[in-house]
Amino acid sequence: MLLFGLLAVSGCIGQSPPADYKTPGITASGTTLPKPDTEITRPEKNLAANSCRFVAISTGPHRSLALRKNGTVAAWGDNTYGQCDVPEGLNHVTAISAGYWHTLALKDDGTVVVWGGKSIASLIKDYGQFSIPSGLKDITAISAGEFHNLALTRNGTIVAWGSNETGESATPLCSYQQKIPG
């Protein structure tokens, strides 16, 4: 497993893994992850050389993200809830963050894009983490959690949205907490 990790860092996503690499979803101990009925998105193959330069990475449960130097996003792994379905045409991305069932991307114009969470509403409570609060702009940093998200504005204010059941969205008094019905 370590050998593959080294190849992925030095090579291109989509390259053939080493011969001793186990099938995605099989851990070193032989435990199957994710479940057999899980939709799996595999890394792209035969990418152009300029698509193989990365500037940021993020992981979520059973999936991985990489931000390309050209501002596009690669996602692979567990895609049961659409968390690897990068929106078509998404570009100019400067930061990425993998939540539990969703993904956030920050664009160079200070806006945030979210995807994933499809078909999950019947299984968990939707706290609003799968949508962007209206008026969210001038963002400089993002972080996706399991049921909530954080964004840092250009003026240094923290915006939080999603669940607050354990205080995770209770930002410092000088910040703003977005309340989304749910």
How would you explain this protein's 3D organization?
The chain has one helix at 2-10, and strands at 40-41, 54-60, 63-68, 73-78, 93-98, 102-107, 112-116, 139-144, 148-153, 158-162, 176-177. With 182 residues, the chain is mainly beta. It has one domain (39-177): Methylamine Dehydrogenase, Chain H, CATH 2.130.10. A four-stranded antiparallel beta sheet has the order 1-4-3-2, with no helix packed on it. It has a four-stranded mixed beta sheet with strand order 8-9-10-11, with no helix packed on it. A three-stranded antiparallel beta sheet has the order 5-6-7, with no helix packed on it. The longest helix has 9 residues, at 2-10.
Topology:
Layout: H1 2-10, E1 40-41, E2 54-60, E3 63-68, E4 73-78, E5 93-98, E6 102-107, E7 112-116, E8 139-144, E9 148-153, E10 158-162, E11 176-177
Parallel strand pairs: 10-11
Antiparallel strand pairs: 1-4, 2-3, 3-4, 5-6, 6-7, 8-9, 9-10
Beta strands, count: 11
Please indicate the count of domains.
Answer: 1
CATH topology: Methylamine Dehydrogenase, Chain H
Name of the CATH first level: Mainly Beta
Mind telling me the C-alpha Rg? 17 Å
Strand content: 25-35%
Query: Fraction of residues in helices?
Result: under 10%
Low-confidence stretches: 1-36
The strand line-up of the biggest sheet is 1-4-3-2
- Following the backbone from N to C, one meets helices and strands in this order, namely HEEEEEEEEEEE
CATH architecture: 7 Propeller
**Average pLDDT across residues?**
75
Distance between the termini: 42 Å
Superfamily at the CATH H level? Regulator of chromosome condensation 1/beta-lactamase-inhibitor protein II
Name the shape in a single word.
Answer: globular
| Tally of DSSP helical segments | 1
Structural class: mainly beta
Describe the sheet with the most strands: 4 strands, antiparallel
